[in-house]
Design brief:
Blueprint lengths: L11 E5 L2 H4 L12 H7 L16 H15 L3 E5 L2 H4 L9 H16 L3 E7 L5 H4 L9 H16 L5 E5 L2 H9 L11 H25 L4 E8 L2 E3 L4 H16 L2 H4 L10 H10 L14 E6 L3 E5 L8 E4 L17 H12 L7 E5 L16 H19 L4 E7 L18 E3 L6 E3 L1 H9 L3
Parallel strand pairs: 1-2, 1-11, 2-3, 3-4, 4-5, 5-7, 6-8, 7-10, 10-11
Antiparallel strand pairs: 8-9, 12-13
Helix pairs in contact: 3-5, 7-9, 8-9, 13-14
The structure holds 1-deoxynojirimycin.
The site of 1-deoxynojirimycin (NOJ) has 9 residues, from loops.
């Protein structure tokens, strides 16, 4: 039976959330609209037309919610700052009430003995900046840097743990290539400039924090998935390599000073030439104190000549059919172990934190109880895999469960429930699920 003490006394256990997904108060107290507010307002973009104005109402219930973090026994609370709450138009004029709100959240954490980890960008770009091109525009970097400086100067005395970006591949691919997330842009002509400015933002954000926050512990997070070729044919192996460049290597390698992974995929080589990214190699480099890994599923891929550009396609795993979560994501703890090892192999990755991991299920509240045995099993499997990696000498120093409570799961709306705490989106009542109680017990031992 796995115990939290197996990971050592220093190991940091936390729970993660993001502003857009829980805060609500979307237009209250001076907050400007973000690209997600605009996206959710368009019909057909979010399942069942769910909106963002209230979500979990964390904006008004943060005291109660931080008390839940404490009650469940977590030491760390990872949350993000809504850029357009601080700067309603993305730049220049600040919103004092927005700035105050995060002071309140931080102070509440500190008074409860909870360590805050702040994510600076968790996908909610101010709409005013998107109107100027958003992440595709060269001007985004100056705006982001100014936002980082404001946060560092405001909160840096109280908060030492910072995460520059959340899943850069997530928002550049879903938002600027596939168009299924905000701002709904598509195509490589949007994707590549967004990738370039994002790679610059992660390094420059890190440098600003280093300069302005004393004793800062600075990280950034990556979505990651083990990529498995369907067969051992050369075509499938090369297809898997291309997907690996895109999904796993695209942002960590520039931060490591390696530039974009052009050798694995000729399309990236063209991107590098067209945008002159090799000239920016030094600017894209930053020595992060920790790397945040966020893993949910592996991918099995097969060569497919009909798929433009990447010529690869996701298929079901060839081996035995694996169980899936309610998102349709394959449950495969071994692939979690494998991807941790892949990232740990970079020479400059000194310290890994798992900054998100969790599962959505079709939870039901019955007589005041949510019996989510499958989620408990999921966590046991994944924690065991992480323990194996740690025992083999990988420096993993923390784990943050995704997520505190059921919330707005982007294009899935409120339909995908990932929480350890059930949210009733009508009454806003919170009910600890059995998995929440499981964590509470786990963290005691
Ligand atoms: C990654 C994202 O950072 C988070 O916002 C999202 O809810 C989870 N994965 C689950 O999809």
């Amino acid at each position: 039976m796995i115990k939290s003490s197996d990971f050592g006394d220093e190991f940091l256990w936390g729970v993660a959330v993001a502003a857009t997904q829980i805060e609500g108060a979307a237009a209250e107290q001076g907050k400007g609209p973000s690209i997600w507010d605009s996206f959710a307002a368009k019909s057909g973009k979010i399942k069942k037309g769910h909106k963002l104005d209230i979500t979990c109402d964390f904006y008004h219930k943060y005291v109660e919610d931080i008390a839940l973090v404490k009650l469940l026994g977590f030491k760390v609370f990872r949350f993000s700052i809504s850029w357009s709450r601080i700067l309603p138009l993305g730049k220049e004029e600040t919103n004092p009430l927005g700035i105050r709100f995060y002071h309140n959240v931080i102070d509440e954490c500190l008074s409860q003995g909870i360590v805050p980890y702040i994510t600076l960008y968790h996908w909610d770009l101010p709409q005013a900046l998107e109107n100027e091109g958003g992440w595709t525009s060269f001007s985004i970097n100056a705006a982001f840097n100014a936002f980082v400086s404001i946060c560092a100067l405001e909160y840096g005395d109280k908060v030492k743990n910072w995460i520059v970006l959340n899943e850069p591949f997530g928002y550049t691919s879903l938002g600027y290539m596939l168009g299924v997330h905000a701002p709904g842009k598509t195509g490589l002509s949007n994707f590549f400039p967004a990738v370039l400015h994002t790679a610059l933002a992660q390094a420059e954000g890190g440098k600003i924090l280093r300069a302005e926050v004393s004793n800062a512990n600075i990280g950034t997070t990556y979505s990651c998935s083990e990529i498995v070729p369907y067969t051992q044919s050369e075509n499938d192996i090369l297809a898997a390599k291309r997907v690996d460049c895109l999904m796993n290597r695209l942002f960590i390698e520039p931060a490591q000073g390696l530039g974009f992974p052009t050798a694995g995929w000729d399309v990236l080589e063209k991107f590098q030439l067209e945008y002159g990214t090799w000239r920016l190699q030094e600017r894209m480099k930053f020595d992060f104190d920790f790397i945040g890994l966020q893993n949910y599923f592996p991918l099995t891929v097969k060569y497919n000549a009909f798929i433009p550009v990447i010529q690869a396609w996701e298929v079901k795993a060839k081996s035995q059919r694996k169980p899936h979560t309610a998102m349709g994501w394959e449950i495969n703890a071994e692939s979690f172990y494998n991807i941790i090892k892949q990232f740990a192999a970079y020479p400059n990755v000194k310290n890994i934190m798992v900054t998100e991991n969790g599962a959505a299920y079709h939870d039901k509240l019955v007589n005041g109880h949510v019996v989510d045995a499958e989620r408990i099993e999921y966590f046991k499997l994944y924690l065991n895999a992480m323990l194996k990696a740690k025992q083999e000498g990988i420096n993993i120093t923390g784990y943050m469960a995704w997520t505190l409570m059921d919330n707005f799961e982007w294009a899935e709306g409120f339909n995908a429930r990932f929480g350890l705490v059930h949210t009733d989106f009508k009454t806003l009542e919170r009910t600890i699920k059995y998995s929440g109680y499981w964590w509470q017990e786990f963290l005691k031992n």
